[in-house]
Every structure is written in structure tokens, then in C-alpha cells.
Here is the input.
Amino acid sequence: MARTMPAISARATLLPASPIRRLAPYAAAARERGVKVYQLNIGQPDLPLPGALKEAILGTDLNYLAYTPSDGEPATREAIAAFYRSRGFEKSKASDVICTNGGSEALLLAFLTMCDPGDEIICPEPLYANYVTLALLAGVVIKGVPTSAADGYRLPSTEALRAAVSPRTRGILWSSPSNPTGCVYTLDELRRLCALADERDLYLIADEVYGDFFFGAQRAPSIRDLPDDVARPDRVVIVDSVSKRWAACGARLGWFYSRNEVLKGAVMRAAMSRLSPPMISERMVQAVTRLPESYYSAIQTEYQKRRDVCLAGVNAIKGARAGNPQGAFYLFVELPVDDTDKFSEFLLKEFQHEGETVSVAPGSGFYASQPASKKEIRLAYVLESEQLRRAMQVLGFAVDAYNKRGA
Ligand SMILES: Cc1ncc(COP(=O)(O)O)c(C=O)c1O
Here is the structure.
């Protein structure tokens, strides 16, 4: 009998490897060779877990590591609702929160419950790479609408967004503050998205996992700030997470926020099939209401300082260009190299300067469509300033070395 191997699904063959994690084995190999790798490829905050959250975990009775309700314990959902109320959103109710395994699962559940296979979601790009993969898992197509480095990756014109809408389009998805560009949409831009959703009967999926990372006195506008007759509750979904805001990526807890009862019912039925969010992490979130406002202002000050260090470093590299991001903790940078996929591998496989190198995410992975150029990278400024300063110098040396290869 012929020995054949069972095939993987057609869907699985389409899944791209994450541009953020794809190069991790090369980084590990570089470390094994004794090279110090400044890790700027992944958005994992280096700040310690807030004390109040740590205490909540330590205070949990670990004799009972149980399933919780599929949408989370009432106290978790109430803590999240209270957090939104503390941000001025008085209408926030625990019953509108469904806890998930990270914001990632909230996105997947959104795609699965809003769309049928072959349906489309439009999204300004560059975009968060995993949107494409999570959508593919649900048989959904992300249609990218280009933005421009020249204007700081602002929301595309309504005409451009409208032109991307087809009879299969079910929603508009964006992150603001943005991963990977750091762009923060204004309330007027959010209003424009709402108007288009009304015009074409679409869902609005606001990814606000970086909602507390903004620079300057003005808080990053949220879809929650708009009145119901503009951001209609039956259209709006908010995807959010503890990962960045509370420096707890490993907690794997996020949430799906909606006031659409039918949609929430569908998400809840899907959530029942995976039983429960992680209980220990829920206990941690129940403590967020105890965090003082000074916690948030301290992280804003710290990340603004880091952004400035990175921007100065990029500007010191001849021919490199970056915008002036107003939030999140990423810099989308154009480098004077021919191909950043190759350059990112070169950094880890061939290059070192005085025993040091940098790990970055190549820009091509942050597009659903073909990027206009291969010159972009994404930097996550998740190291303290002195290390960032040095990492940017090393990056500059690497650009020179890369361009001199074979010269
Ligand atoms: C824009 C954006 N949305 C969602 C997520 C998912 O985060 P998590 O699953 O850790 O909550 C991330 C993680 O990097 C992100 O950058």
C-alpha cells in the first residue's frame, strides 16, 4: 500500500508565519554564539507587573484552579466595566464584557461571529500582522487600504475606504493607537469610520489594546467617546487586553466589548466551546481598579522618553525615515536598504558590532496587500532608554555593513 501523508487543510497552507516571531530561531542562535541581541521585534513591555496585580495572584487560593464562567467571573467583568467608567464611559456595564484568552481570541471570535467564509473586513494598512492570520483561520479576507508615511499613516480618505467596500464586506477594523505605526486617530477620524459603517451597514471593530499609550496631554480618543447616534452600539465592538496596558502579556487575558445583544449571544456560545478564560489572570484583573492614575501617567512618560530616544537614533542613520508616532510603542521606519526581509535576517545571521546586534520585524508582514516598498521595518521600543540608544547605534552600523556587502 502506498504510504502517503494526510494533507493539511487548504486554509492552513495559506497561513503566513508571524513577521514578529519568524526570526526568533535566528535570534536564539545568535545568543548561543554569544552575541547580545537587542530585542526590538516583539511588543512585549519590559516593565514589571504592577504590585497590586501581583498581590491579587498571590492571594488566590490555588487549591481551586477552576474553570470560570465562559465570559469570565462577574468580578472580572465588573472590574473591566469600572475601568472603562473611570475613563469617562458611564454606560459601561459588566454584562457587555466577555473575557477572552487575550485580545487575540477576541479578534478571532469577532471574525467568526460576524462573518461567513469568504466575507471581508477592511483595514487601514500597515496593520497588525496577526489580523490577517486570525482572519484566515476564520476563512475571512482582510482587505488593506493603504495609508501613507508622508502624513503619519492617518486614516485614508472616506473615498478610498468606500472603494474597498464590496458586497462581501462585513466590517472595518483598525487599531488606534496603532500597531505598527503609532498613529492615534482623532475623534473626527473615528466619526468618519462610523459614518461609513452606517452608510454601508458594517461592524466597527476598534482594537484599543494600546489605549493607554499616548503622548501629550490629550488622552487617545476612543470609540467609547462618541455618542450612540454616531457610534451605534449595534455596530461597535471593542477588542482590548491586559497584555500591554498592565504589562502582562503572559496572562493571556483580553476582552470583547459589545452592546449588541445578538452578537454577544453568538460570541458567548462560541466562548462556551472553549470553556473559560484563565482564572489566575482574572484574579489579577480584578485588582486593576486599585491602580492609581499615577500608574498610567508613569508609563506614558516612560514610553514617550523611549520614543524620543528611538526617533533620535533613526534620524542619525543617513537615509532612514520615521514619522512622529503619537501613541503605542512602535516606530515604523524606512531604511536605506534594498530589502528588509533580507536585512532582518542579516542582522541575526551575519552581523554583529562589538558582540551586539538587533532583532527587528520586517515591514512586509504588516500588509494584507503587496507593500509599495521593501524598505520598512517595525521597531518596538520595549527596552529602557540607555539600551535603546545603543541598539539604534548598532542598527546604524548594520545598515552600513549590509550596504557594503559585496561592494
Ligand atoms: C494591535 C494588537 N491587537 C491585539 C493584540 C493581541 O494581544 P493579546 O492577545 O496579547 O491580548 C496585539 C498584540 O501585540 C496587538 O498589537
In short: The longest strand covers residues 169-175. Residues 43, 102-104, 128, 175, 179, 207, 209, 241, 243, 249, 254 surround pyridoxal-5'-phosphate (CB under 6 Å). The first helix runs from residue 10 to 14.
